[in-house]
Amino acid sequence: MSKVAIVVLADTATPGDFGRAVNALMTAKEFKEAGDEVKIIFDGAGTKWISKFNEENGKYNSLFDSVRDKVAGVCGYCASAFKVSEDVAKFNINLIDEFDGHPSFKKLVDEGFTVLTF
Hints:
Layout: E1 3-8, H1 15-33, E2 37-42, H2 49-52, H3 61-67, E3 71-75, H4 76-81, H5 85-90, E4 95-96, H6 105-110, E5 114-117
Parallel strand pairs: 1-2, 1-5, 2-3, 3-4
Helix pairs in contact: 1-3
């Protein structure tokens, strides 16, 4: 069984960013369906995706919903910096502040996770 942490850093500004965010969710879905241990973390500008993937009639809402249970959380510092803390709370997503307000990638590596960034 694999252990993978998928980190979404992509902004919401360009089609390329959109593609990276969707690829992150597809990757999470593939690992989830294989029975692997998966964590999704939204960090940096990627914290803005929480509201995007919850927009009414959003094209990829169902994909996000299929892996929502694998969302470990959103960087607390970055959610504040990008002014999305309220959206994160509205959608019941955890804020992660393990290392100076940010997720601890060292902790993930120490726990045996392979960290993939998108």
